[in-house]
């Protein structure tokens, strides 16, 4: 799919109800974690951590923390047993994050204050990552985010849980909405509001279908990712690579990763 459209996503809108956004994030977290979406990029991230001598992953735009536990376990499988992850977001999800922190005995923690991925506070250290979030940023903002990482001299990896294919758009309209309706009662932590706005007033699934479709249409290609990186780093201070990693069972992850030379 070569088409890239800058349509809006509901979860990006400041006025969008927090209870609906939380319900959508809970679904994404469950699906990304259950499917192990980001497991294929663990060797890349492990290489970046080793290259920069980091033991902390600073996750920007973390949403509800979907897939973070899978990434932690995958990094441990790469021999990084002392790694920890800190979750941050412009719209923090403290309830969801507290649940993750409890399950991981604090290996995954969070920053309570809102964090702007384009201007990360100096006290938040670590190898920066974005999962399923880079497409939210238009080119100027995406470039600014990469520039901020270069300026700080820290590594950064952005990962999208799709290969940007038309079949993925078809799944977003058919199979995934059915899965959401079947699986919602099993999401944790339990929220009565999630059931109300999924089954009685189906705002959560409808907004999820729209945002999921738009996410694919807004995704950058690997060539566009590299162009953004080189534009953000004209002096060539970082080593950059972009590409796709494939699961053994089919799905792809699109990535851009860079660290100081």
From TrEMBL:
InterPro entries cross-referenced by the UniProt entry: SAM-dependent_MTases_sf
UniProtKB keywords: Membrane, Methyltransferase, Transferase, Transmembrane, Transmembrane helix
Biological process (GO), any one: methylation
Stretches that traverse the bilayer: 199-217
GO MF terms, alphabetically ordered: methyltransferase activity
Cross-referenced Gene3D superfamilies: Vaccinia Virus protein VP39
Protein's UniProt name: Class I SAM-dependent methyltransferase
Species of the source: Hymenobacter jeongseonensis
